[in-house]
Q: What sequence folds into this?
């Protein structure tokens, strides 16, 4: 692969190409939309390399960053991949890693999710770069993501500082023609130089390293000046933009036939001189950036008498994702021209009639059965403390009352228990991958501090929501090898829980029985509801062997009981109040078990 | 056809109907024929029965999202989903819509005729047909996306779409997909 080529690539695949070509030795991460495709792409392609990089799914983002940091201390190049909220988990090592710096290049690939398409918030990772005082690169297309990934390692090595490459959904999950150079750097030789004043962050050393980090700031600013590109025009209006918003601005000014001065900022810390030059050339400046008004705040500091428009003045929305239409409207307001795209009334009226298509648990998802049994045994009055994963969709079955962040179900559960006392049933619900991610410390804490609660681990043997990545309890690694399968039961037992039950959620009576025992038990009771994810079972061909045909003889004799409707299964619909089972039914048999009139049969 | 000709297309459907595959084939064909091309996929929870929305922009060096009322075509693998995203279609654009319904829970499904009426009133041309039936006729329901690409092919500034499809589909499904493409082509009404 020495020749340059043009490929149609997902932004995340372009980043993965950049990592390969940069000669990275260690790549770690935890799955999370919209970053999840990078590590699988690397893992699929390591075989093409004589000296392949070490690539791993780590148990969580803090661990992943520390793995990468260890490698980068040893002079080799390392990358760590995560979504924006993952950086919260990795924030602890990050803040001090900025002090110690690195020897080999260390790049954090962090994907932000404007509009919360698949996240619990829409925080802006550029804030973290500012917080940690490290550089941040902000590509606008898959091509730039590829280019800047490679540059990030040079930058990181030149200043011995970790670098954030911040992507967003419309870069990571965009596809585009990308020119790949095919030029690979060799991996660097591993070598760790013992130097306590550099690597051991006791207070005396940390104080000095903090001075060094601060000294670095103006040097970083001048190095990155070339990534602030200024085009001055004879125009009253100036525009400052960054990331994917650059492209929206280009399209909007073409549509409006404007020719403003433009400063695009692809790297932070920002180049003040370029900002001042634009301000001095303009009467008003519109700042267009995805997520937080990071640039806008800086521009306001430097503005003099010029009017600065953007998210802080309401010209652009403070929340949600930008689009060309949103940016067009912002330009319209800025130049006093009414710009709007009229959607015809007929379409709006028709849209109102459309049935919603909310995501639901798949037909045959084992979680559905667990939730049904959970509600039956613990009743509505229990507090169901949820977590991050497919099972958040259990909210439609009334068995998810809270969702905060990865691992919070167990620790918050003990908080609920402490607050509510004996009178209230507390049930925490967490998936297997999330349990390993950050659930384990919460469980240790709950047992140690004497919580009275039930924990349900929904063990579908995968990280389903983000595309079926493995984790320690599956035994498989990112590259498909199997070193050790961590026995979940042994771990839970060793933590000291007072009751542990393992059930197959498809067997409702067994599952309900375990829940009753847990409900009546003391201290922390754990039920592991174990059944592989339906999608992975389907892919592995396990379903076709066991698939049963399910038929309904439901005749509405029973005054439309619709009990099976409480399963919220996409395979069950009603016609004249009679249950019908559709073709996509996989024959889990759960509806058959709950039907009180024997109207549903599997054969 | 010059290589700076532009074609913006929205492809929508529900999870599993092959919208992403269809957009991938379109993009790859455009790339090979020398166009700039970009697309955006929104499929956060598509595997869980949700909507899949893909924007494909051929001959475009802007961002991947198509502005409202400006797409040259919308390909709707499912009627309600087609209407949900019809606001992206240009008044001069063409809607290619599969009339075969995939039921959604909750609200009653509106009559497809009403949906078609709203479409017809707001764009230049509507090509509505039961593409699912044609896919079955071709030999496999999964060829639905290729049926619809066959119809779209008439509008595209591309000439090698069929070849790329043949290269991308699994060998054992090749014949069915080629039949599907032909059936889709025939369904086009100028």
A:
């Amino acid at each position: 692969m020495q020749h340059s080529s043009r490929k149609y690539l997902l932004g995340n695949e372009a980043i993965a190409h950049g990592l390969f070509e940069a000669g990275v030795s260690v790549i770690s991460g935890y799955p999370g939309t919209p970053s999840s495709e990078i590590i699988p792409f690397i893992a699929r392609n390591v075989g093409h390399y004589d000296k392949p990089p070490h690539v791993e799914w780590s148990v969580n983002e803090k661990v992943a960053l520390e793995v990468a940091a260890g490698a980068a201390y040893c002079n080799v190049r390392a990358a760590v991949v995560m979504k924006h909220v993952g950086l919260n988990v990795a924030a602890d090592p990050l803040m001090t890693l900025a002090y110690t710096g690195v020897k080999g290049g260390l790049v954090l690939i962090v994907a932000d999710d404007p509009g919360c398409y698949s996240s619990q918030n829409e925080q802006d990772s550029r804030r973290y770069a500012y917080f940690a005082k490290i550089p941040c690169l902000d590509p606008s297309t898959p091509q730039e993501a590829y280019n800047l990934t490679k540059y990030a390692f040079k930058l990181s090595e030149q200043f011995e500082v970790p670098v954030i490459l911040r992507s967003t959904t419309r870069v990571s999950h965009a596809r585009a023609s990308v020119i790949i150079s095919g030029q690979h750097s060799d991996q660097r030789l591993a070598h760790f130089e013992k130097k306590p004043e550099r690597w051991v962050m006791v207070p005396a050393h940390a104080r000095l390293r903090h001075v060094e980090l601060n000294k670095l700031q103006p040097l970083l600013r001048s190095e990155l000046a070339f990534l602030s590109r200024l085009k001055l025009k004879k125009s009253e209006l100036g525009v400052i933009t960054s990331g994917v918003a650059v492209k929206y601005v280009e399209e909007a000014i073409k549509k409006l036939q404007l020719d403003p001065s433009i400063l695009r900022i692809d790297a932070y810390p920002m180049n003040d001189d370029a900002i001042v030059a634009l301000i001095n050339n303009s009467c008003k400046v519109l700042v267009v950036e995805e997520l937080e008004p990071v640039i806008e705040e800086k521009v306001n500091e430097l503005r003099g008498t010029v009017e600065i428009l953007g998210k802080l003045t309401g010209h652009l929305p403070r929340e949600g994702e930008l689009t060309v239409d949103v940016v067009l409207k912002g330009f319209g307001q800025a130049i006093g021209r009414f710009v709007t795209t009229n959607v015809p009334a007929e379409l709006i009226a028709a849209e109102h009639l459309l049935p919603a298509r909310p995501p639901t648990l798949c037909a045959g998802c084992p979680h559905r059965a667990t939730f049904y049994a959970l509600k039956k045994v613990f009743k509505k009055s229990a507090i169901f403390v949820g977590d991050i994963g497919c099972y958040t969709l259990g909210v439609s079955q009334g068995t998810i009352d809270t969702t905060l962040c990865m691992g919070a179900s167990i620790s918050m559960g003990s908080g609920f228990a402490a607050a509510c006392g004996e009178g209230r049933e507390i049930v925490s619900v967490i998936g297997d991958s999330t349990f390993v991610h950050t659930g384990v410390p919460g469980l240790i804490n709950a047992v140690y501090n004497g919580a009275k609660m039930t924990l349900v681990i929904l063990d579908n043997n995968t990280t389903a929501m983000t595309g079926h990545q493995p984790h320690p309890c599956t035994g498989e690694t990112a590259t498909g090898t199997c070193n050790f399968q961590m026995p979940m039961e042994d771990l839970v037992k060793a933590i000291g829980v007072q009751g542990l039950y393992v059930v197959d959620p498809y067997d409702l009576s067994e599952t309900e029985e375990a829940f009753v025992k847990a409900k009546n038990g003391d201290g922390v009771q754990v039920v592991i509801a174990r059944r592989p994810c339906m999608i992975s079972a389907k892919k592995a061909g396990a379903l076709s062997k066991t698939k049963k045909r399910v038929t309904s003889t439901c005749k509405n004799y029973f005054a439309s009981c619709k009990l099976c409707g409480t399963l919220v299964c996409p395979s069950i619909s009603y016609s004249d109040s009679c249950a019908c089972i559709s073709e996509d039914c996989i024959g889990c048999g759960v509806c058959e078990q709950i039907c009180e009139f024997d109207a549903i049969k599997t054969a | 056809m010059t290589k700076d000709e532009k074609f913006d297309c929205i492809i929508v459907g529900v999870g599993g109907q092959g919208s992403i595959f269809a957009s991938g084939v379109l993009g790859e064909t455009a790339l090979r024929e020398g166009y700039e091309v970009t697309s955006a996929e929104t499929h956060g929870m598509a595997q869980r029965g949700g909507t899949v929305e893909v924007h494909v922009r051929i001959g475009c060096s802007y961002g991947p999202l198509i502005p409202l009322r400006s797409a040259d075509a919308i390909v709707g693998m499912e009627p309600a989903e087609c209407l949900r995203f019809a606001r992206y279609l240009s008044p001069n654009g063409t809607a290619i819509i599969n009339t075969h319904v995939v039921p959604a829970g909750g609200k009653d499904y509106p009559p497809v005729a009403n949906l078609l009426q709203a479409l017809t009133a707001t764009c230049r041309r509507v090509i509505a047909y039961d593409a699912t039936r044609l896919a079955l006729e071709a030999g496999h329901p999964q060829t639905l996306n290729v049926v619809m690409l066959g119809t779209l092919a008439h509008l595209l500034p591309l000439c090698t779409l069929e070849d790329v499809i043949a290269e991308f589909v699994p060998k054992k499904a090749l014949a069915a997909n080629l039949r599907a493409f032909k059936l889709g082509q025939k369904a086009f009404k100028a």
Remarks:
- DSSP finds seven helices and six strands in chain B.
- The mean pLDDT of chain B is 93.
- The first strand of chain B starts at residue 7 and ends at 14.
